[in-house]
Amino acid sequence: xxxxxxxxxxxxxxxxxxxxxxxxxxxxxxxxxxxxxxxxxxxxxxxxxxxxxxxxxxxxxxxxxxxxxxxxxxxxxxxxxxxxxxxxxxxxxxxxxxxxxxxxxxxxxxxxxxxxxxxxxxxxxxxxxxxxxxxxxxxxxxxxxxxxxxxxxxxxxxxxxxxxxxxxxxxxxxxxxxxxxxxxxxxxxxxxxxxxxxxxxxxxxxxxxxxxxxxxxxxxxxxxxxxxxxxxxxxxxxxxxxxxxxxxxxxxxxxxxxxxxxxxxxxxxxxxxxxxxxxxxxxxxxxxxxxxxxxxxxxxxxxxxxxxxxxxxxxxxxxxxxxxxxxxxxxxxxxxxxxxxxxxxxxxxxxxxxxxxxxxxxxxxxxxxxxxxxxxxxxxxxxxxxxxxxxxxxxxxxxxxxxxxxxxxxxxxxxxxxxxxxxxxxxxxxxxxxxxxxxxxxxxxxxxxxxxxxxxxxxxxxxxxxxxxxxxxxxxxxxx
Length: 480
Prior knowledge:
The chain is an alpha/beta fold. Helix content is about 40%, strand content about 15%.
């Protein structure tokens, strides 16, 4: 590895620490993936912009990387603790379809979201239902010393591991209030390892186990799959900050039980903060949530949402509103236009390149992202580099490759046309818009303002806003 040392915030210790991989030849990262019972909302997707930034920074700084993301298709209840129905079973009943079809549909939608956001595929997708035998074997190994059986299933006794809840640091009544009581549990924080199917319960997903026919608890899958593919102790485990309170402490407890040690499973536990709307934190349980596809359907380029996420530090709350998203769209447009101008000038500009000056920008980018992935600090460096007239256009484009590698905005190849996403409700094709605008320019040049206004009004009726006088020089946008 070269460049600045990498410092990352560790939720386990609540401090920034110098990153040192267990094996320099293979940095191992596990990220909690989606429960595929519904579309991911944009708050969910912030977690994967963060994780992608982490993986990009590690790769850019020369670390070989193995990255695993799980797909939860069984076991996650409608409460994050031990209450309610299985989310997948409930979704299948509501749609009157197979739970396997539900999982396949929403998994494909999630992966498309990641592609739209230029989020790289992990080294491995790990699907929960492919690992049921592994989960049963893991549970059998820890059950004698750490679990007890009730009529409803097998439960983990949190008092049997050291310092339970250290990650959450919330052993108070407020945390306990999030966990609904289950008759017979020894402690409020005890959690299900295996949930037995009820006598009159009709589940689509259930398996035989030493504790009866049923399904695994949600927390079990991540301990099992991270250990299988990354080892008992690996480098980094990521997830949303909501996982820090219940899911990840329960993973840690299982990991400690299995190794019979104080190791937590990962050296770093990293969490991104919430995306919030003015009405409160975004969640599916509230019923109204914004998806990436709904933004695309309104004509918003998905990379504008990625840029909006990068403008805030991953550990800070990020407010989502029409105004913040529009500002990100404008900023992305400015960047694309600047790069397009540089491409046009690169072959004709006779200025000699300044490799030393360009290296300074790379070093400043490195310093920013090495400071706990400080992308808000990196973005102004990008702006300054692109505007630096002491660098030849070709040299600025070469330096841009480093920023694209880390930030994932794909500015080197992103075009003006690509930012004009056609809304779902639009009644006119982009090529037809271009043709009508050419006709309008000709009419205005001929001072035929009646015809010019007629063309503008027809475009407006088709959902296209003609942007006369736009300081960015953008001819049109599809109205939201």
